[in-house]
Amino acid sequence: MRQEIIGLEDDYSCRLSKELQDLSKRELQEDGKKRRKALTEVRKWIKSQSHIKKVRLDSNFLLRFLRMQKFEVKESCEILDKYLNMRWQHPSWFQNLDCRDPKLAELISMGYIIALPDRDAHGRRVIYSKAGAFDANRFNTSDMMRAHILTFETLLNDEENQVRGFTYVLDEKSVTWNQLSIWTPSEVSKAFSCCERALPMRHREIHFLNLPWTMTIVFQFAKSLLSEKIRKRFQTHSNVESLGQQVDVAVLPSEYGGNRSIEECIQLWKEELEENRTRVLSLDQMRMSTEPVNEHLQLVRKKSRHDSGSGCQMLGVVGSMRKMELQVD
Question: Looking at the whole model, is its pTM more than 0.85?
Answer without folding.
Answer: yes
